[in-house]
Amino acid sequence: MNNAYARIVDILARALGASSLSLHGEGIAARQIADLPIASAPPAAAPVEPPLLISVNELEKTDPAALDALIEIRKAGATHHLFVVSTIFSLSLDDAGVNVNRTIERPEWWRNQLARHFPAVTQLPEVEPHEVIFLSWAPEPAVSRRLDKALKRMKLASRIRALPGRLLQPLRVKRARFMSERLLSHLLDGKSVALVGNAVSLRDKDHGAAIDASDIVIRCNRAPIITTRSHGTRTDWIATSIDIPREVADIRKASVILWMSPKLKRLPSWLFGWPQVFMNPKEANQQLAGRLGSRPSTGAMVIDLLSRSNCRSVELYGFDFFNGLSLSGVHTRETTPHDFGAEEVWVRQLLEMDSRFSLRL
């Protein structure tokens, strides 16, 4: 939603009677808020404690051992606080090849963490996917209603703006010159493939070098890399079923995008300008769903696609079938829309039947 963070802060600042605020961190929210008239860099030695402090994408970049200390520093900087926290890993790595987001936890965990420092933590509705907003206080009911009304208006306006594009999506797909499966199979012919899933458990492994040694490295959805030691550095193809930002493909330097979902309304508009895009056939998706008895995950659809190709070998990394957590979001095995028990049975049967496939645990 355009400028939603700025609108939230503007409403809160007016309610608090704030004429200035203290802004820390960087990201989408910080850029929006920085454009507000009351936004200003915190002075070196403020004579009066400002009424409102904004912390954007700082907490998740802090090592767990230093988290409480940072929250206390921010607490001392104002009477009221707003925290924006990401619940997924960043696209950026530091010089040591480690993801810059150090602490990735579910929204409930962050709420409990902040509640150790503030008596009345309030969580606001989501503005951007995989980002949560917390206030260090409980706003007055009238302010809460104003926030709720503003967010609903912005969400409605966003849907209206997107409506023409969604209505034209089927026509654009028909006219698009996406890759055929025959051409894709030609690219895979005789190649070794590393398919990297999003199981959190992969971060404890040392598979990075083996992943990078493959002819083609395929990552799923937002293509998270926690460390180069565990996940490798290369990304040749990205397979996705969600509306990922173009910057994911740009930063990962992917050459091919595999669109695996039959749902065209999720198809990102930037894909129509990407040089090499493959759209998984709807029939293949339906057949796999029939075998599994539920909607297949992105990883399962890619495995099915690779099994139809003439690739030399496929090594599966980061596939624990939700016996642990996933880097893709906040779902658990119980809340995900996929049947990972059925997917595990299907994959293990494939491993027995097709010697090209191996599961790296």
UniProtKB/TrEMBL annotation:
InterPro entries reported in the protein's UniProt record: Glyco_trans_29, GT29-like_sf
Gene3D superfamilies in UniProt: Glycosyl transferase family 29
Subcellular location: Endomembrane system; Membrane
Keyword terms: Glycoprotein, Glycosyltransferase, Membrane, Transferase, Transmembrane, Transmembrane helix
Cellular-component GO terms for this entry: endomembrane system; membrane
Transmembrane segments: none
Pfam families hit by this protein: Glyco_transf_29
GO MF, one annotated term: sialyltransferase activity
Record keyword Glycosyltransferase present: yes
Domain of life: Bacteria
Membrane topology (UniProt): Single-pass membrane protein
Keyword flag DNA damage: no
Chief location category: membrane
Record protein name field: Glycosyltransferase family 29 (Sialyltransferase)
